[in-house]
From TrEMBL:
Coiled coil: none annotated. Carbon 2 of the heme B porphyrin ring is defined according to the Fischer nomenclature. It comes from Blastomonas marina. This is Protoheme IX farnesyltransferase. HAMAP family: CyoE_CtaB (MF_00154). The lineage of its organism: Bacteria, Pseudomonadati, Pseudomonadota, Alphaproteobacteria, Sphingomonadales. The gene is ctaB. It is an enzyme of class 2 (transferase). Keywords: Cell membrane, Heme biosynthesis, Membrane, Transferase, Transmembrane, Transmembrane helix.
Length: 293
């Protein structure tokens, strides 16, 4: 069966990338300089195309691994709807187009960070770290932390403390986000030999690590307000959201898996992690528009 446009769309991991694109948009809108709407739209489109290209390259490389896991076995490559060369060429084309257009239309600093994040996800994380170390997502998660910085730099043309803090927030958020999920789909990764932390270091170590990252995330998420980069609306929202995130992480971090466990706290934490990042970045923009004339 030949690949349809739907398969190419699926190859960009659209659901996961909504949050990547959203944080990029928030970085762009929260920046102190306002960019013209047409260029702003072009910048976000480039982030979306670049993230989609990187996701396609990730699946080109991981076709065999995806075939071995229930969660990923219906993706276009493992289900045989597309061949690997098509996925690779599509990924390269999107990646190159996104960086080229970003550079020409917006600026080469934003384009360079976009290029770094694509290589980070497709090569550093997927090809190098993921199959080798249980710290894969801690280091590799950096790729997903770049979009707000790209958005910010697209608007201002420079890297200041604020975009670095936004990067750091997503960097610290990624381990609890992913390890909560890895606790309840652990068997999948075991089957294909990917050294995810629960498989290699055990559940208790993973639970403790989740709590450590959530505890660091709380003060870190307040830092943009602390350094005067945002107003009280963001500060108060970050305190509430990160407090809740820490609470849910503590429920996961301080328990043990029981016989026949439904893993409800882990599923709740994973679900909340997504809501958390959407809400935190939305409040950054609300703060900016409500408090800055
Ligand atoms: C290396 C770091 C990360 C890993 C290993 C990871 C892994 C995963 C996995 C396995 C899922 C399950 C669902 C699926 O495959 O569709 C998922 C869901 C999700 N992830 Fe992540 N993630 C990471 C970083 C991020 C980042 C940085 C973002 C956005 C800023 C993000 C946003 C999401 C969203 C929105 C979902 C839900 C998708 C849905 O509703 O189906 N993830 N993540
Ligand atoms: C702008 C730009 C390039 C952004 C990149 C965004 C990025 C790195 C997002 C990470 C989210 C993601 C799909 C992780 C999946 O990990 P996995 O691929 O190990 O998950 P899988 O087991 O579902 O394949």
């Amino acid at each position: 069966m030949p690949a349809e446009w739907r398969d190419f769309f699926a190859l960009t991991k659209p659901r996961v990338m909504t949050l990547v694109i959203f944080t990029g948009l928030c970085g762009l809108l929260a920046a102190p300089e306002r960019i013209n709407a047409f260029l702003g739209f072009a910048a976000i489109l480039c982030i979306a195309i670049g993230a989609g290209g990187a996701a396609a390259l990730n699946q080109w490389w991981e076709a065999d691994i995806d075939a071995g896991m229930k969660r990923t076995s219906k993706r276009p490559l493992p289900s045989g709807r597309m061949d690997r060369t098509q996925a690779r060429d599509f990924g390269i084309m999107l990646s190159a187009a996104s960086v080229g257009i970003m550079g020409l239309a917006i600026g080469w600093l934003a384009a360079a960070i976009l290029a770094v994040s694509i290589v980070y996800y497709a090569v550093l994380y997927t090809i190098w770290l993921k199959p080798r170390t249980p710290q894969n997502i801690v280091i590799g998660g950096g790729a997903g932390a770049f979009p707000p910085m790209i958005g910010w730099v697209a608007a201002t043309g420079e890297i200041t403390a604020m975009p670095v803090l936004l990067f750091a927030i997503i960097f610290m958020w990624t381990p609890p986000h992913f390890w909560a999920l890895a606790l309840f789909v652990k068997t999948d990764y075991e089957a294909v030999g990917i050294p995810m932390l629960p498989v290699v270091a055990g559940e208790q170590a993973t639970r403790r690590q989740i709590l450590v990252y959530a505890a660091i995330l709380l003060p870190l998420s307040l830092a943009p307000w602390w350094i005067g980069g945002t107003g009280w609306i963001y500060g108060a929202s970050a305190a509430v959201l990160s407090g809740l995130f820490l609470l849910l992480s503590a429920q996961v971090g301080l328990r043990r898996t029981q016989e026949g466990d439904a893993m409800r706290p882990e599923k709740r934490l994973f679900g909340f992690s997504i809501l958390y990042l959407f809400a935190l970045f939305a409040m950054l923009v609300v703060d900016r528009f409500a408090l800055t004339p």
